[in-house]
Design brief:
This protein is an alpha+beta fold and 130 residues long. It has four helices and seven strands, in the order βββααβββαβα. Strand 1 and strand 2 form a beta hairpin.
Length: 130
């Protein structure tokens, strides 16, 4: 079972290459951090603030490709945690079918934030983070 989450905190430390986003259960108390890179944290932060760069960044480009191919981002699922590494799937809908694309969580979240796609975490991932 997947649990819907929201971005509860974004911690940007420009002196470090490791940034942190905290995902929290939408209807609960559990939460956990994910360490991501500086490029991805800025992409997420810009999207949340509605700041559009003058030229498309990588996540903007991918979102445009998805949209122009007639697909839609349905949801983002953080679906696994192995060896201290999180894994995610981007769920796209296209012509009545769902396609699941393997992704780093940071890229999936950056893409999902722009399209207002909900973010979910697999229950067993919450179990592993507690």
């Amino acid at each position: 079972m997947d649990v819907e989450v929201e971005l509860s905190r974004i911690i940007i430390n420009e002196a470090s290459d490791q940034q942190i986003i905290v995902l929290k259960e939408r209807h609960g108390q559990r939460s956990f951090p994910i360490v991501i890179g500086i490029v991805e944290i800025f992409a997420i932060d810009r999207r949340l603030k509605g700041i559009k760069p003058p030229r498309p960044m990588t996540h903007d480009l991918l979102g445009s490709v998805v949209e122009n191919l007639g697909a839609r981002i349905e949801k983002i699922v953080i679906n696994d945690l192995r060896n201290h590494t999180f894994y995610a799937k981007i769920h796209l809908s296209s012509n009545g079918r769902t396609v699941k694309i393997d992704s780093r969580p940071s890229d999936a979240i950056a893409l999902g934030v722009a399209s207002n796609a909900p973010i979910f975490v697999a229950e067993h991932v919450f179990d592993k983070t507690s």
